[in-house]
Hints:
Residues 33-127 form the Pyrroline-5-carboxylate reductase catalytic N-terminal domain. NADP(+) binds at residues 37-42, 98-101. Keywords: Amino-acid biosynthesis, Cytoplasm, NADP, Oxidoreductase, Proline biosynthesis. The protein has 13 helices and eight strands. By secondary structure, the chain is an alpha/beta fold. Strand 5, helix 6 and strand 6 (142-147) form a beta-alpha-beta unit. 35% of the residues are buried. Bound molecules: 1,4-dihydronicotinamide adenine dinucleotide and (2S)-3,4-dihydro-2H-pyrrole-2-carboxylic acid. (2S)-3,4-dihydro-2H-pyrrole-2-carboxylic acid (A1CAB) binds at residues 126, 197, 201-202.
Amino acid sequence: MNEEGCDEPAPVPTTTAAAAAATTANIHSADLTVGFIGAGKMAICLAKGILKRGIVKPDRIVASAPTDRSAGLFTEAGMRTTRDNREVVQACKVVFIATKPPVVKAALAGIRGEVTGDHLIVSIAAGITIATLEKALPVGAHVVRLMPNTACQVGEGAMVFARGRSTTPEEALLLQELLSHCGMCLEVPEPYIDIHTGMSGSGIAYAYMFAEALADGAVKMGMTRAVAGDIAAQTLLGAARMLLQTKAHPSQLKDDVSSPGGTTIYGIHELEKGNFRSTIINAVETATARASHLGKQD
Ligand SMILES: NC(=O)C1=CN([C@@H]2O[C@H](COP(=O)(O)OP(=O)(O)OC[C@H]3O[C@@H](n4cnc5c(N)ncnc54)[C@H](O)[C@@H]3O)[C@@H](O)[C@H]2O)C=CC1
Ligand SMILES: O=C(O)[C@@H]1CCC=N1
């Protein structure tokens, strides 16, 4: 319980110097191999980010899927694909589970016999808990639950992860090193992962909707779509940099823009009439609940 009497997840342990040294040795091993069970949109985003880090060569990454639909995205970057999930586990130390959530249990059942204590199994499936992953894999399997977003593809992803019972701090560091060109990657208590899914995994789509709506407004006022689209994107980028670099509260930065009787406060009033902030809070709440629900489905 915290001071307010609320349940609070236990803090995550910090990394030791010994763990960092072991990770450095591991990450520079020429043998490091990375696999993806599921070769879809999120798998290719992560694979491209891992390649940018430069420690894993394309020919040491393999992805599996039942169809060749998205295989081209992997092969054109020099990675290998297969239709056999077990081949991925046989060939790779770090294996991302990147199928849709309802398929995860069946996919894990298919690879269970191949998973050893040398593997690091990293699920990115929305809602699927560490308990579910550990139950589906051999006892003692090293499991991580990770939630990325699609901006990993351009190195600006927001990722959180939690470790399973047998997963070591060294393995957590190895994962963070692997993903260091995908964006920020924080270890968090597991209950935060569904929240992150609602806020960021899904939330990046809300940001795109905001950008689209800004541009629509500008088009309505007579600007061309191309100019409006670029300015909308740069406006979001500028706001994000201001938040991250100044560490100021969003309301402070908002107040700095709002002159008394000026243009901004007129625009803000319109947003408030449309329940702007309340609508976004509701979206995060609903998407978080949906993530939790996906994890409970059989
Ligand atoms: N798309 C996104 O923005 C994000 C997705 N995720 C999670 O990533 C996972 C994948 O999502 P997407 O990439 O969007 O989906 P997707 O539909 O693009 O990719 C799924 C892939 O799994 C393959 N697949 C289906 N059954 C399989 C099986 N039995 N064995 C191996 N592969 C199989 C499909 O052929 C496809 O290549 C989901 O669990 C989702 O919750 C997490 C964060 C963000
Ligand atoms: O919509 C979804 O289910 C996935 C999970 C987070 C983002 N996309």
